[in-house]
Amino acid sequence: MNEPASAATPPAPLLDPAERLATLRHRLAPDALARLEAAVSAMRTDPTAVRTRFPAVGRELGRGPLDPTGDPHDPFAWQVEDAGRTALLVALGPAVEDELASLYRFGDAPERRGVLRALPYLPLADAGLALVDDALRTNDLRLVAAALGPVAAARLDDHAYRQAVLKAVFVGLPLDGVAGLDERTDPELSRMLAGYVHERVAAGRDVPAGIWSLIDRHPPAQQLAAITAELDHPVPDRRQAARAALRHRTLDR
Questions:
Q1: What is the pLDDT of residues 119-140, one digit of tens each?
Q2: What is the pTM of this model?
Q3: Record's superkingdom (predicted)?
Q4: CA–CA separation, 232 vs 185, rounded Å?
Q5: Strand, coil or helix: what is 79?
Q6: Distance (Å, rounded) from C-alpha 120 to C-alpha 154?
Q7: SS3 call for 148
Q8: Based on C-alpha coordinates, what's the Rg of the chain?
C-alpha cells in the first residue's frame, strides 16, 4: 500500500503548521501554554525528551476539540492534544525520523492519532506512509480518520487510496472528512462503491450517507442496473432497501 500516487494525481494541499500552532496557543490557558513552550524548547535541545513529553501532552495541555465550538464526537476533528503533539514533533526537525516509529508503535490510541495528524508537517518520506498503512489496517475510527488525511491523499497509489475510502465506508466514517476525494475519485472507485451499495441492498441494509455523490461522478451502468433491478426482487426487504438507496441517490444530488 505504499507506492506513490501517479504523477497525474495532484497532491492534497498541506496545512500551515504556524496556523495550527497559533490556533493551539489561543486555545490554551496561560499555564498550559507555558508548559507547551517548555516542551517545545526541550525538543530543540534534546530530541530524546520527546519520549517522555509526547505521552504527557494530554495531561499537560488538556483534551477536547481544538475548535471549542466543534463536535466533540467528530472523528476527523483535531483535538488539543493532536495539535500539541504536532508542535513537539515539528520542533524535532530532522531528528523526528529517529523517534516517530517508536512513538507510534508504543503509543496508545490518542498518541498514535497525534503522530498521524502530524505527518503532513514533518520532513518524512516512506516512514510516514508506513504509519498510514498501519492505521488503515485497524478498526479504530480515531486512527482510520487521522490516517485519511493529506498524506494518504497525496501519496497512496490508486489501488491503495480506493481501499482506504472503502475502509472509511466499512467502519462508518462520514466520507466528507476523507482528504482528496475531489481529485482522486475515479471510475474504478465509483464502480467499487456502487458494488458495495448493491451488496448492502441485497442484504436488506441501509446505504451510508454521501456515497452516491461519489458513485455518480462516474456512473457505472452495470452496477446501477443491478441496484435498480432489486426494486423487483421477490424478497420484500431487498425491494425496500433498493427504494431507500435510490431515494438517497436523489437526495445526494
A1: 999 988 777 899 999 999 999 9
A2: 0.88
A3: Bacteria
A4: 30
A5: strand
A6: 10
A7: coil
A8: 21
